[in-house]
Write a structure and sequence with these properties.
Layout: H1 5-25, H2 30-44, H3 50-54, H4 58-74, H5 86-110, H6 116-125, H7 131-141, H8 145-177, H9 184-212, H10 218-239, H11 243-256, H12 261-287, H13 291-296, H14 300-321, H15 329-337, H16 343-358, H17 366-392, E1 402-406, H18 410-421, E2 426-430, H19 437-442, E3 446-448, H20 454-459, E4 465-470, H21 475-489, E5 494-496, H22 508-512, E6 517-518, H23 526-534, E7 538-543, H24 550-556, E8 562-567, E9 573-575, E10 589-594, H25 596-617
Parallel strand pairs: 1-2, 1-4, 2-3, 4-5, 5-6
Antiparallel strand pairs: 7-10, 8-9, 8-10
Helix pairs in contact: 1-2, 1-12, 2-12, 2-17, 4-10, 4-11, 4-12, 5-6, 5-8, 5-14, 6-8, 6-16, 7-8, 7-17, 8-9, 8-11, 8-16, 9-10, 9-11, 10-11, 14-15, 14-17, 16-17, 18-23
Length: about 625
């Protein structure tokens, strides 16, 4: 029985999200898992063939998805983010892209054996990296801010530039090889590119103005943005193919730099949609490849071209374009290696393969094969190597997961000191310089500022911190902090401490249900925790072993002991909460807050047992 189109849509979504989950669960590059899954479901097992099954809808679906993904990526391109990095970003996106185009075109002609027309088209196309492949790698590798920002900006900005370069190369070749050269097509191309940029800017300013002046209600803001993105892309693309990518990139960057709070609120929603689209599109594109295409990949000329692009063209373009910038050698080495190609290269190459074939270029059929070879090789090579290389070059934030604590007080400062003892990164954020005095005196890293401020977003590097604890004296503020950062940190990694035993306003039950999970025990307030630290409660580490299992530890611990967190041998940790089930295993360390008197008695008893044991031996 032939599966229905509805069943195929369901299967594509299931395989895409399933691949993302497998990648997360086993700490593997998501783009690699998605590519392999698509190949298995498509050309290898023959379960899916989206291009054939979707028919005329296939290309529009892919195009709209790419436009939305590129828009979502460009929505993160705030100019404030690259203060001090503007020069290298500009150089790489312009001079570096041009060098990569020329060198890539020469390699395509002399190594891969393409004619000059196809070589210059594919050379322009292959300068792209793109958010579909760069963003997952950045999430996986935890790079330091400088190289991460440069890779992100390059990926998003160069995506439309690469597509336009490919169109420009085709128009130039068509103009030069025509019997009666006519510059009309070239003029239309340049005019359409300028129009696309202006259209994107106008759409961004227009939708932003409507948001700021309340002409669009909250429940319609996300749908309105998506429709405008599709309209902006389609209008530009109908004039000249691929200029739509430039239009949506311009629109996203315009909105990103208008400082509109509504756009900030919608960002997490659009990120979720983008993640779903990336998962589905990767499966669709790889599943639509033909077996012949896969077999052609092993041609020595094609493999030689791929290796040349990875080991010669990319490093040269980075090193030459960044001469005179403030980039360090290790940063140049990383940037010179990391350049995975993704969805834009796959989609645009199919378009050019067809129009070059129609124009009579016999080797145009190789474009799809070469594109897939470069995409798959770079995705696998860079996906598995970025973390290792970043560590070797000291550009990785890899290490024990850190904790960001909002609120400086007796308890949080002592909690931070206990985290320092287990070598876990920690920082305390507070807007009060006076309250931060305890952290300064204790030698705990701190940041003086408002956690919800836009300035904090650009000045505070949150990359090392996987957990967030809101522990101020204001219950509603704790809930607001947790609600704001839950999409970024994840529901299981955001905690809040209830500041009062009794909420006099009767809002306790409501606030407790908003935002993050209650830290430690429900009845344990911040007031209680601060009191315990003033009473010299001890932060104690207890090793769980086969001889001293967790069950025995629970039976022997004092009732007043507060279980804080568990540290795994791998460096991972889990904070205690009644909403989370934690079962430490042998090798884990339990950190607790223990009453001082009973702790002293335990120490004295242990010393007494040791003395008795020594006496018996003697």
């Amino acid at each position: 029985m032939v599966p229905s189109l509805l069943f195929e849509v369901m299967l594509i979504g299931l395989l895409g999200i399933g691949s993302q989950w497998v990648a997360w669960r086993y700490r593997m590059p998501a783009i690699v898992i998605m590519s392999i899954t698509g190949l298995l479901a498509g050309p290898i097992l023959g379960i899916l063939n989206p291009e054939e099954d979707f028919g005329p809808l296939y290309n529009p679906i892919i195009s709209v998805a790419v436009a939305i993904i590129l828009f979502e990526g460009s929505l993160n391109l705030s100019f404030k983010e690259i203060r001090g990095l503007g020069r290298p970003v500009f150089r790489i996106s312009t001079i570096g892209a041009f060098i990569a185009w020329i060198l890539g075109s020469l390699a395509a002609h002399y190594v891969a054996g393409l004619n000059w027309a196809a070589a210059f088209v594919i050379g322009g196309l292959f300068i792209v990296t793109g958010p579909t492949v760069i963003m997952p790698l950045l999430r996986q590798s935890k790079l330091k801010p400088r190289p991460a920002k440069i890779l992100k900006w390059e990926g998003i900005i160069v995506d439309p530039i690469g597509a336009l370069l490919a169109v420009f190369a085709f128009e130039i070749i068509t103009f030069l090889t025509a019997e009666n050269p006519d510059g009309t097509a070239l003029f239309i191309f340049f005019a359409a590119s300028v129009f696309a940029g202006i259209l994107g800017w106008a759409c961004g300013r227009g939708i932003g103005w409507m948001f700021e002046n309340g002409y669009i209600p909250e429940f319609l803001k996300s749908p309105a943005v998506f429709i405008v993105v599709i309209a902006c892309f389609t209008l530009a693309d109908e004039i000249v193919h691929e200029t739509g990518l430039l239009a949506v990139t311009a629109m996203g960057m315009t909105l990103a730099n208008m400082g509109i709070s509504s756009v900030q609120d919608m960002r997490h929603f659009k990120e979720n949609v983008s993640m779903l689209l990336i998962s589905a599109i990767f499966i669709m594109l790889t599943a639509s490849l033909q077996v012949d295409t896969l077999l052609q990949v092993f041609d020595p000329n094609i493999m030689g071209y791929v290796l040349l692009m990875m080991f010669i063209v990319r490093p040269l373009s980075i090193f030459l374009s960044t001469i005179g910038t403030n980039l360090a050698l290790n940063e140049k080495l990383l940037l010179g290696w990391i350049a995975p190609r993704g969805i834009v290269a796959l989609t645009v190459s199919g378009y050019f393969a067809s129009i070059l074939s129609e124009a009579g270029y016999a080797d145009a059929s190789l474009i799809t094969t070469i594109t897939f070879a470069l995409v798959f090789t770079t995705v696998v090579a860079h996906g598995f190597s970025i973390g290792w290389l970043a560590k070797k070059l000291h550009l990785s934030k890899e290490g024990r997961p850190g904790t960001l604590i909002v609120g400086s007080n007796n308890f949080t400062v002592n909690l931070a000191k206990s985290l320092q003892k287990v070598r876990a990164p920690v920082i305390i954020v507070d807007s009060s310089w006076e309250k931060l005095r305890k952290a300064r005196e204790a030698g705990v890293p701190f940041y003086h500022g408002q956690m919800l401020s836009e300035q904090t977003e650009y000045q505070l590097d949150t990359m090392p911190y996987e957990y967030m604890i809101a522990a101020t004296e204001y219950n509603s503020y704790n809930a607001l902090i947790c609600t704001t950062f839950m999409p970024e940190y994840g529901r299981t990694n955001v905690f809040k401490v209830s500041p009062y035993r009794h909420d006099l306003n009767g809002m306790g039950d409501i606030v407790n249900k908003v935002g993050g999970r209650i830290l430690f025990r429900q009845e344990l307030s911040l007031e209680d925790l601060n009191q315990k630290t003033r009473e010299n409660y001890v932060f104690r580490q207890t090793a769980i072993t086969n001889q001293y299992p967790y069950k025995q530890y629970l039976n022997e611990k004092d009732d007043d002991t507060v279980l804080l967190y568990v540290m795994k041998p791998s460096g991972r940790m889990k904070f205690y909460s009644e909403e989370l089930r934690i079962t430490p295993e042998p090798g884990d360390t339990v950190v607790s807050l223990t009453p001082p008197v009973k702790e002293q008695k335990k120490i004295e008893k242990r010393l007494e047992n040791q003395r008795n044991g020594n006496g018996k031996k003697s």
